[in-house]
Specification:
OB fold (Dihydrolipoamide Acetyltransferase, E2P), mainly beta, 2 helices
Length: 257
């Protein structure tokens, strides 16, 4: 157990070898190692004294305060983890910015694909920084609050209309699609019109377009329809598959969370 465990884990992160740990809730085993399946604090449950068993690794969605729920089993957080705050003050509902800024994470729909770039229409700004500044307490909802409804509507081809002209427009240039082999990028194989893309703003651009990048594992296509019109699911970082016909299509796929 010489390796240091992370205090917080992200999906797909290696936690430790199966020779030292057993996989608990929120983790899975792959290639003789325990990996995180969800994002959250890493919890280590020691083996029973006198037994030859191994400590159990799990990933929790939140750290429970002492004395609240399921306290029958002693657990310890991974080395370096900070104790959870015990304040009972409820957190205010997260409100998202409506104006993109540099480093903002956004969801956008692809409206046009060209040889050197793809044009997208920004649907939601996911960046939470400064979202509570200057917010009127009497405001309880905004256009960005119901993300599921926005994406469901955006993924429906029947809703692709001139409303895109009223949204912020952005470009994803060929060199900003991925971090490696940029010269081998073929835009038609990365994006298709109607795809929903997660990207990061890298430049405010000019008065017409922002500039986005998808050159990270967690960025890229998150929702797409096949040529047959069916929703697809990711099978690798560069391929999605039709849930009905099983036909595969190439995309620059965002890593699922």
């Amino acid at each position: 157990m010489a390796s240091t465990l992370p205090a917080l884990a992200i999906p797909g992160q290696r936690l430790g070898p199966v020779t030292s740990y057993s996989a608990g809730p929120g983790t899975h085993v792959q290639q003789s190692n325990v990996y995180a399946s969800i994002a959250g604090p890493v919890v280590v449950e020691p083996a029973q004294p006198g037994s030859k068993g191994k400590a159990t690794l799990s990933v929790s969605r939140s750290i429970r305060a002492p004395g609240t729920g399921n306290a029958s089993k002693p657990v310890t957080t991974a080395p370096g983890a900070k104790p959870a705050a015990t304040s009972a003050t409820p957190k205010p509902k997260v409100k998202y910015n409506t104006l993109p800024a540099v480093d903002s994470v956004v969801l956008a729909r692809v409206t046009r694909v060209q040889k050197r770039q793809a044009t997208v229409s920004i649907l939601v700004v996911l960046d939470e920084s400064g979202s509570t500044q200057g917010v009127n307490p009497s405001q309880t909802t905004s256009d960005n609050d119901n993300i599921e409804a926005i994406l469901s509507s955006a993924a429906n081809p029947e809703n692709h209309s001139s409303s895109d002209e009223l949204r912020f427009q952005a470009l994803i240039r060929k060199e900003d699609v991925r971090a490696v082999e940029k010269d081998r990028v073929v835009m038609d194989e990365m994006f298709r019109v109607g795809d929903i893309v997660r990207g990061t703003v890298i430049s405010l651009g000019d008065q017409s377009f922002y500039y986005l990048t998808t050159a990270r594992n967690d960025l890229g296509v998150v929702m797409a329809r096949s040529e047959a019109g069916n929703m697809m699911f990711p099978v690798s970082w560069k391929e999605m598959r039709d849930s009905v016909t099983g036909q595969a299509e190439m995309r620059k796929v965002a890593r699922p969370f």
